[in-house]
Amino acid sequence: MAEKLNDAALDQLFREARTINVWKDKPVAEAQVRALYDLLKFGPTSANCCPARFRFIMSDKAKDRLVPHLMEGNQKKVRQAPVTVMIATDYAFAQHLPKLFPHAPDAKNWFSDRDVADETAFRNGTLQGAYLMLAARSLGLDCGPMSGFDADAVNREFFAGTTYKVNFLCSIGYGSDEGIFPRSPRFDFEEAAAIL
Fold first, then answer.
1. Tens digits of per-residue pLDDT, 51-96?
2. Under DSSP, is residue 130 helix (H, G, I), strand (E, B) or coil?
3. Domain residue limits, the chain
């Protein structure tokens, strides 16, 4: 049976973790990126559909392709971060279900309705993006998730000819305390939740 994480781990994952805007000049190794993926891939998705596709932007050449499609405020962040991940969604994920969900040979057909497939893809791909951030934090890395980009342009630049569409971006590395905003308020339980 699983045991509760200690307070230091909970602080690292949630309570003390912050969105990073300024990055230290400290690289992230490919081995760390692979370790991060090897954690996030175990997060649950519907019928193990795993629709997220990750593109880890690390080289200057790749950053040169991405930066022109970002809002001005995000351009410096991506240039400075050692890694920025494009979290995309494969809207043809069902074709992989014979491999990913082999005990239900008919699973691919569960998503023959386009609306059901698209909703499933987006929901579960977004979940996998959240798993990426928790995996990164668990490995001692900081995160800077962001919107603020031209999705159509990013899709043309990186995903033309595929069934992938970008969902959001997340820079990863070692964050500086510089540029961190004061902690914003959160809803109390009674404002956002109910026990029925």
1. 999 999 999 999 999 999 999 999 999 999 999 999 999 999 999 9
2. helix
3. 13-178
What span, in angstroms and rounded, lies between the C-alpha atoms of 106 and 145? 36
Give yes or no for a contact between 88 and 166, defined as CB atoms under 8 angstroms apart. Answer: yes
Please tell me the number of Cα atoms within 13 Å of 169 on its side-chain side. 25
User: CA 96, CA 89: separation in Å to the nearest integer?
Assistant: 13
Task: Kindly calculate the radius of gyration of the chain based on its CA atoms and give it in whole angstroms.
Answer: 18
The structure tokens listed for 117 are: 């497939």
- Rounded to 10 deg, the angle between the 30-40 and 114-138 helix axes is 130
Least confident of 1-5, 76-80, 111-115, 134-138: 1-5
**Pairing relationship of beta strands 142-146 and 83-90 according to DSSP bridges:** unpaired
Decide which of 3.40.109.10, 2.60.40.1930, 1.20.1600.10, 3.40.50.2000 is the CATH code for 13-178.
3.40.109.10
What token pair was written down for 34? 């692979």
Q: Is the pTM of this model over 0.85?
A: yes
Is the CB of residue 81 less than 8 Å from the CB of residue 58? no
